[in-house]
Amino acid sequence: MTDIAPAAPHVPVMLEPVLEYLDPQEGGVYVDGTFGAGGYTRGILNSNICNVFAIDRDPNVKHMADELSQAYEGRVKLLQGCFADMQQLLQDVGVDQVDGIVLDIGVSSMQLDQAERGFSFMADGPLDMRMSQSGMSAADVVNTMEESQLADVIYQLGGEKKSRRVARAIVQARSQEPISTTKQLAEIIRSVVRMKHHQIDPATRTFQALRIWVNDELGQLTRALEASVQLLAPGGRLVVVTFHSLEDKIVKDFCRTMSGATSRGSRHLPDISMDEPPALFAQLTRKAVEPSEAEVNRNPRSRSAKLRALVKKHQEDVS
User: Fold this and answer.
1) What would the pLDDT profile of 129-185 be if each residue is shown by its tens digit?
2) CA distances from 217 to 108, 211, 226 (A)
3) How many CB atoms lie within 10 A of CB 313?
4) Which ranges of 159-203 does DSSP label H, i.e. alpha helix?
5) pLDDT of 195
6) Dihedral sign, CA of 144, 122, 249, 89?
């Protein structure tokens, strides 16, 4: 099918395997839970004559969704909101079940490249990081959160081993003046975390932790996975691309639980299989699928991506 839409302003990560596992069918209804710049939505629409409900909490994506809707004769509809609320968003437009859901967990390249959104330390901008542009910003967090809690957030969500040192430096700096820009915060972090040869920028882990916390990314992911159980029709497919070990663990555990692949305990203990939930899904990916070397070279932002996929069983196949 000919691609009739304008080129995307970013490169969607692992687009080919996403489409392979999602397997869009003619007449199907699909959800792109993380619309961003529309890369997955465009790929789905190009794959077959189907319909896509695109979900995004960023109000800035509306014009791109409108352009796609016009280019694809109304086969895409934007639902403004969080993908964790997809079941309610779809019910509001009269949709109870869908044939596939794709989620790309993480900040889009479009947002990273906009200095005014405050996601990246690569260019100076206001310390914001809010995908929805509402609620508590990263500046609010670093200027008001208690030192111990701030250290925990930076360690647990960013994996920063020197989190307590970073939190202490942030608290000391904010006592002199509010921390309001990405440059300010990055310099504070770099003052206490030194970069060794060939390592990532010292600010990377703390910025990641703040972004995840501000947008409740792990909670959003968990609720979205739970919603998919009810939303997907028999034979429907769930494809999730993650970029962080904490996200991937949530998806991995969900896949194992819903497919009945969780540990059944010691063989020396009584059989408790009757208490275990039925396996409603089958795993399409026993192990996480990673981007090819060619893709990583073409799109360095894909290097940490992992893809996992499930298919919902028909009732007669549920065990």
Assistant:
1) 887 667 789 999 999 999 999 999 999 999 999 999 999 999 999 999 999 999 999
2) 13, 8, 14
3) 18
4) 163-176, 182-192
5) 77
6) positive
pTM for the full predicted model: 0.83
Q: What is the DSSP string of 87-134?
A: HHHHHTTT---EEEEEEE-S--HHHHT-GGG---SSS--BS---SSS-
Q: Find tokens 């995840």 and name the residue.
A: 212
Across 286-315, average pLDDT = 93
* Across 26-49, average pLDDT: 95
Q: Residue 239: beta bridge partners?
A: 102, 309
Nearest to 151 by CA among 172, 136, 165, 141: 165
CB atoms < 10 A from the CB of 90, how many? 20
- What single-letter DSSP state applies at residue 244? S
Q: Write the DSSP string, 22-68.
A: H---TT-EEEES--TTSHHHHHHHHHSS-EEEEEES-GGGHHHHHHH
pLDDT digits (tens, 9 = 90+) for 80-121: 999 999 999 999 999 999 999 999 986 654 444 444 444 565
Whether 122 shows a pLDDT value over 90: the answer reads no
State the Cα–Cα distance between residues 95 and 300, nearest whole angstrom: 37
Three-state secondary structure call for residue 234: strand
Question: What is the spatial distance between Cα 251 and Cα 34, in angstroms, rounded to a whole number?
Answer: 16
Q: Assign 151 to helix, strand or coil.
A: helix
Cα dihedral angle (40, 43, 48, 50), rounded to 10 degrees?
A: 30
Q: What token pair was written down for 57?
A: 């909490």
CA 36/CA 53 separation, integer angstroms: 13
